[in-house]
Amino acid sequence: MPHDRSDFIGAWRLIDWRIEYSDGAVTRPFGEGAHGYIIYSSDGTMTASIAKAERPAFGLANARNASEAQKTAAFDSYFHYAGPWELDGDEVVHSVTMSLNPDMTGTQQRRVARFSGDDGLTLSAFEVTKDGGKRHHILQWQKLAQ
Description:
This protein is mostly beta strands. It has a single domain (5-143), classed as Lipocalin. The chain contains 1 helix and 10 strands, in the order ββββαββββββ. The longest helix has 9 residues, at 68-76. The radius of gyration is 16 Å and the shape is globular. The chain starts with 9 loop residues before the first strand and ends with a strand.
């Protein structure tokens, strides 16, 4: 059954991001303590950001003066994209217009959406790996009180 747009509107806090593999393995890309937000606005714009729990500070007045190693660590510990969103059946479709990863810009990120209780949302997507295996991204969110 198709979802109601109004159920998505608002800010959601990340509870868990895990990847389940076809061989039974489970990983958490940013570890157990990852935190983040996804926000859906009524005008059809969304933004999602996720970070590792512990990200070392640069300790600099200007981040552009950080070393290459510091910049690499910052990139590897943070995820973000934004753009318009729409519903397609039981999926929410994020049309990425900007992203920390430039290769995501211009893509459509389709997520199966499942609501639980009054304030739970799970977004998931299947992916085929280079070796032909499958992995299932599962992101659990909790709606913030308004």
